[in-house]
Amino acid sequence: LTAKLEAATARKAIANPIVPGISVGHPSISAGTVGCVVYDAQSGAPYILSNWHILNGATGAIGDNIVQPGKHDDNRVERNVVGRLVRSHLGIAGDCAVASVEQRRLDAKIVDLNVSVSRIGEPELGDKVVKSGRTTDVTYGIVNRIHVTTKMNYGMAGTKEIGCFEIGPDPDKLPEDGEISMGGDSGSAWLAVSRNE
Q1: Is the pTM for the entire model greater than 0.90?
Q2: Computed from CA positions of residues 19, 31, 93, 170, in that sequence, does the dihedral angle turn out positive or negative?
Q3: How many CB atoms lie within 10 A of CB 88?
Q4: Is 187 left (phi over 0), alpha (psi -120 to 50) or beta?
Q5: What is the rounded distance in angstroms from the CA atom of residue 196 to the CA atom of residue 95?
Q6: What is the pLDDT of residues 137-155, one digit of tens each?
């Protein structure tokens, strides 16, 4: 239990290098998760990927500071700036944003999974997936719906239609409380699990 608490605390603490699976956010929101490291197609510059509602939010703008950890985990936002919001999107193509990391180092290996994202895939029904998030740590799921459009209420930004897929718990790897994702896990990248596992 002590090791589990220490791991959970580490995900919400200041980190250097910045790694996927830890707390991050725009200073105007509470906290979410660094999903993975992605690279600009033209320049090759590395960015952290998370959700629009984590790195941008209704009051954010391109160029705004991004903090790690998110404000809910450490409200000393001035000292926790790691980079800036570079691009974001909210709509049918998804809820996503990328930010630079300028004030600390960056490592693409995801906390407790020790792998980095190598490519984007199309989910298929029955795919086994895993994620590493700020709140519920490592959890496992199964894709049970694809090509879904859902209406989400983003508060001041209004209700938006978002294209997505749906994940349910993997019955073979259920967490103790049954929750595979909770508040603060937003932004986590769901990765396909090798069929050999």
Answers
A1: yes
A2: positive
A3: 23
A4: left
A5: 31
A6: 999 999 999 999 999 999 9
